[in-house]
């Protein structure tokens, strides 16, 4: 026996081994709310995805309600700002706080920023919203299908970043 050290081997050694993904570079994607998968845009394992790639569309009554609340808060604020000189200063502050909190709720539900900006601009409620890839990687597993009801417990996708891998060799 000898101490392990890094050096050039004097002869070639053939060994059995395997290459595996780095477990620290796995991303498991879960929805933040319950709903129904309307369309899968990425539906094959082994498919590469970039960060922010649209993976699927989901219909969720919670997301629709949150959008409605945000639009109502925006419209209410616009009406109150027309009364800028009103002696009821607290009402305008409350309207601004409501806009901020309803927007924050959309962010916490993982509604993409571009969809929130579109909602602010058009004031049109979308029936279904996109779920984007949170990271770059290869699709290792898909646990959702079109029409399926999902909850926050449902793991929709497992993505692996293969820019660094592990090699297990038996020597």
Topology (elements, then pairings):
Layout: E1 16-21, E2 26-29, E3 35-40, E4 48-49, E5 54-59, H1 61-81, H2 89-108, H3 113-122, E6 128-132, E7 137-142, E8 149-150, E9 157-160, E10 165-170
Antiparallel strand pairs: 1-10, 2-9, 3-5, 3-8, 4-7, 5-6, 7-9
Helix pairs in contact: 1-2
Notes on the structure:
30% of the residues lie in helices and 27% in strands. By secondary structure, it is an alpha+beta fold. The strands form 3 sheets. The protein has a 4-stranded antiparallel β-sheet, with no helix packed on it. Helix 1 (61-81) runs antiparallel to helix 2. The two termini are 14 Å apart.
Instruction: Please give the share of residues in helix.
Output: 25-40%
- Give the helix tally: 3
Mean pLDDT: 88
> How many DSSP-defined strands?
10
Shape: elongated
Residue windows where pLDDT falls under 50 for at least 5 positions: none
Question: Strand count, sense and closure of the main sheet?
Answer: 4 strands, antiparallel
Q: How many angstroms does the end-to-end distance come to?
A: 14 Å
Radius of gyration: 24 Å
How are the strands of the largest sheet arranged? 2-9-7-4
**Class computed from helices, strands and strand pairing:** alpha+beta
What proportion strand? 25-35%
SSE order: EEEEEHHHEEEEE
């Amino acid at each position: 026996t000898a101490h392990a050290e890094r050096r050039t081997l004097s002869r070639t050694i053939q060994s059995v081994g395997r290459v595996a993904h780095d477990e620290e570079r796995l991303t498991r994607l879960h929805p933040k709310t319950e709903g129904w998968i309307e369309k899968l845009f990425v539906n094959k394992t082994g498919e590469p995805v970039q960060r922010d790639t649209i993976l699927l569309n989901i219909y969720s009554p919670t997301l629709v309600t949150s959008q409605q609340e945000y639009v109502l808060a925006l419209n209410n604020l616009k009406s109150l700002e027309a009364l800028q000189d009103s002696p009821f200063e607290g009402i305008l502050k409350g309207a601004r706080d409501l806009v901020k909190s309803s927007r924050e709720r959309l962010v916490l539900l993982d509604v993409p920023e571009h969809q929130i900006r579109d909602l602010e601009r058009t004031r049109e409620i979308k029936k279904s919203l996109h779920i984007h890839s949170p990271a770059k990687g290869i699709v290792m597993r898909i646990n959702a299908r079109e029409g399926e009801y999902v909850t926050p417990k449902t793991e929709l996708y497992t993505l692996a970043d293969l820019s660094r891998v592990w090699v297990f060799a038996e020597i």
